[in-house]
Design a protein that fits this description.
The relative contact order is 0.10. The chain has five helices and no strands. It is globular and about 50 Å long. With 110 residues, the chain is mainly alpha-helical.
């Protein structure tokens, strides 16, 4: 199963090969939350590719449930990006969307 393979192929640690594998997997199944999430973790923890990791996470955070969003917010793999302006903006936008959805699609009145 290609989703269970380590995209880094740790025997050779070839970052370029890992990135190509991620791209191919996304062509096959671009909406796979778990795959995107795990790839983002690898991009951060093993490759130090912060922007690529945020690119990987962005579409999923845009539609994340509260449970998934809360998990992203506390996952230790994302500790290095918690203060990143783009990560903070993605989380804030998702939280605002969830609040709006919880009020029947209209923003809550203050």
């Amino acid at each position: 199963d290609p989703w269970d393979q380590d995209p880094l192929d740790r025997d050779d640690g070839d970052a370029e090969r890992a990135t190509e594998r991620m791209k191919r997997a996304l062509l096959i199944d671009p909406d796979n939350w778990n795959m995107r999430y795990n790839f983002a973790c690898v991009l951060i923890t093993s490759l130090n590719e912060i922007d690529a990791a945020l690119d990987m996470l962005a579409p999923e955070i845009e539609r994340a449930t509260i449970g998934r969003l809360n998990h992203v917010k506390v996952d230790p793999d994302f500790a290095v990006v918690r203060d990143h302006p783009r990560f903070k903006a993605m989380i804030a936008a998702a939280e605002a969307r969830l609040v709006t959805e919880s009020h029947g699609g209209t923003p809550p009145s203050h």
